[in-house]
Amino acid sequence: MPLLPAFNELNLRTYVKYDNKPGIYFMQIKANSRKAVIMNRTMTKLPYQYANLSKAPSFHYHMNAEKEDNILDIDFHPGAFFNEVSPLERWLTERYCCYQEDDNNLYRYNIHHPMWPLYSININFHLQRFNLPGWQLTEQSVHLMHYSPLQLALIWRREKLPGDKV
């Protein structure tokens, strides 16, 4: 029996390298389950936050995160499956670790998952407000989007990385 039921998640991430090992760094992770947020924050310390996030069967996502005054509305339909992906798409999706700051230290989670099945996406993008301190995401600042169905992953315990505090 799984610890958590399935939940919807939306994340905002960037791509980083540390000690020549590429990974992802999550700036925000929104989930529509308070239980999932509490458990993930407790177990991983990753920046999970609750948001009213819904996904309709017709591929409609709506997110309202009142705390940050962020609203996102997206209608999309998966397009063609990519039999071959470009080097950029491979670089963006084949990340096998996640970096995180906590208590002024840098940590890494090693991750194992199959290659992401990528699909093109036909989208009607209604980005109403999505802000982070020092960032403002707009429709014009989104240059590349893909769709992938559920991906299962194994995640190892975090390891503290050597060096000066961040």
First and last CA, distance: 39 Å
Mean pLDDT: 80
Q: How many separate structural domains? A: 1
Count the E strands: 13
- Helical coverage, percent range: 10-25%
Poorly predicted runs of 5 or more residues: none
The succession of helices and strands, N to C, reads EEHEEEEHEEEEEEE
Q: Which overall shape is indicated by the principal axes computed on the Cα atoms?
A: globular
What percentage of amino acids are in beta strands? Answer: over 45%
**Structural classification:** mainly beta
Oligomer type: single chain
What is the tally of helical segments? 2
Question: Compute the gyration radius: what is it?
Answer: 16 Å
Outline the biggest β-sheet.
7 strands, mixed
What do you see in this structure?
With 166 residues, the protein is mainly β. It has one domain. Helix content is 11%, strand content 48%. Strands 1, 2, 3, 7, 8, 12 and 13 form a 7-stranded mixed beta sheet that branches. Strand 10 and strand 11 form a beta hairpin. The longest helix has 11 residues, at 34-44. The model has no long low-confidence stretch (mean pLDDT 80).
